[in-house]
Design a protein that fits this description.
- This protein has 13 helices and 23 strands.
- The chain is α/β, with parallel strands linked by helices.
- It folds into two domains: 212 residues, UDP-n-acetylglucosamine1-carboxyvinyl-transferase, Chain (Alpha-beta prism); 196 residues, UDP-n-acetylglucosamine1-carboxyvinyl-transferase, Chain (Alpha-beta prism), CATH 3.65.10.10.
- The protein is globular.
Length: 427
């Protein structure tokens, strides 16, 4: 375990190429693994979560080789693994892989680290059972035991708007005869639909209803996975809060379902520009720029807006703590079942750095205070480590000592190097 001490910087400037988007990357690797043909998938700075997906696919007998940032995947039918499929800390790996394996004539056990074992898995197991798969959870959590086989198309109405559950059902639907439908209670990311359609699968989203027609096998296509908007959000917050900042982020995924953080920061008064440029895959890609502007305004966030920024909420908590007034987050109870209880972790950390904060059952209420030095316990959660590093870098906190700093590599292996690169001589 490593600690990292972060202090304020005199200025923030430069160009940052953020790592490839995890959400897109997982889906590309899994779809290509069962596709017809071979494809080259370029992954810039893949974190531990994507490495878990790559390792699981190799254990399933999928042909995978690597050359630098390029992963060469040869599509095949998965085989029963010799041992447990270790998903590490990646809930996306576990849930999507469960859907992919549900229609295969094999048996597999999916497990992960202690944190992943606390995350709810019945939400994906239940719809797969409705399609005919044998899926057993452990008191609603991992390990998952799957005995795959013939599946039937079904009409699902999900209680939670989850892109991971939708994606798992879509992968399972590729092995079904006829139309599988997924009805969502709210908007989610549409990476699965965009990707599978681009790879030749009959799939369509209309409003909050996704339909897949099977049986179908994707056609392998090579691409470079664009940059992760959630990783870019760290620098958008840092640039918006710092008194002297100008940052440029090229090659970022500009999927409209992923840009809610940009819009929230703009509502708060941040100076952010977005420019779309040509990409080579199913996702829009472009450049995001942020520079110092006026002090941010407070905001009240709740309802459907929360799901669109769920991964960025720890960073948004830091932005709220710097705003000129009291901000409030509600309807974010999902944060309590992420890699850590992120509501509790953020409230504890914000209080430690001097913000005025109140914990709510489903969020927090926070306003500015007197910045002070602090020690932050991340609980091994990458989002918490990154959020409080940004708080210190941008001056919302004093000097901050962050434990388990290596946890940032789950989503952003180069985070600390990029932080050092854009920070001038300490103030």
């Amino acid at each position: 375990m490593t600690e990292r001490v972060v202090a304020g910087a005199a200025a923030l400037s430069g160009t940052i190429e953020v790592p490839s988007d995890k959400s897109v990357g997982h889906r590309v690797l899994l779809a290509t693994a069962i596709a017809d043909g071979e494809a080259r998938v370029v992954l810039r700075g893949p974190g531990a979560d994507l490495e878990s997906t790559i390792a699981c696919l190799a254990s399933l007998g999928i042909g995978i080789s690597r050359s630098g940032a390029t992963v060469i995947v040869r599509g095949a039918r998965p085989e029963s693994p010799a041992g447990v499929l270790d998903c590490g800390n990646s809930g996306t790996t576990m849930r999507l892989l469960a859907g992919l394996l549900a229609g295969e004539p094999l048996s597999a056990v999916l497990d992960g680290d202690d944190s992943l074992r606390t995350r709810p898995m019945e939400r994906v197991a239940a719809p797969l059972r409705e399609m005919g798969a044998q899926v057993t959870t452990t008191d609603g959590h991992a390990p998952l035991e799957i005995h795959g086989g013939a599946l039937r198309a079904a009409d699902h109405e999900l209680p939670v708007a989850s892109a991971q559950v939708l994606g798992a059902i879509a992968f399972a639907a590729l092995r079904c005869d006829g139309q599988t439908t997924v009805r969502l209670p709210g908007q989610t990311r549409d990476h699965t639909e965009r990707l599978l359609a681009w790879m030749g699968v009959a799939i369509r989203r209309e409003g909050m209803v996704t339909s897949v027609w099977g049986p179908a096998r994707p056609t392998a296509r090579s691409l470079e996975v664009p940059g992760d908007p959630s990783s870019a959000a760290a620098w958008l917050v840092a640039g918006a809060l710092h008194r002297d900042a100008a940052l440029r982020l090229p090659g970022v995924c500009l999927n409209p379902t992923r840009l809610a953080m940009v819009e929230v920061l703009r509502q708060m008064g941040a100076t952010i520009e977005v420019e779309e440029r040509a990409g080579d895959g199913p996702e829009p890609v472009g450049e995001i720029r942020v520079r110092t502007g006026d002090r941010l305004r407070p905001i009240r966030l709740g309802g459907a807006e929360v799901a669109a920024v769920i991964d960025e909420l720890p960073l948004l908590g830091v932005a709220m703590a710097a705003a000129d007034g009291i901000s409030e987050l509600r309807d974010a109870g999902e944060l309590r079942v992420k890699e850590s209880d992120r509501i509790a972790a953020m409230v504890t950390g914000l209080d430690a750095i001097g913000a005025r904060v109140t914990e709510l059952p489903d969020g927090w209420r926070v306003g500015p205070g007197a910045a002070r030095d602090a020690e932050i316990s991340t609980g091994g959660d990458h989002r918490i480590a990154i959020a409080f590093a940004v708080a210190a870098l941008s001056g919302v906190a004093g000097t901050v000592r962050i434990d388990e700093a290596e946890s940032a590599s789950v989503s952003y292996p180069g985070f600390w190097a990029d932080l050092d690169a854009i920070a001038a001589v300490p103030a």
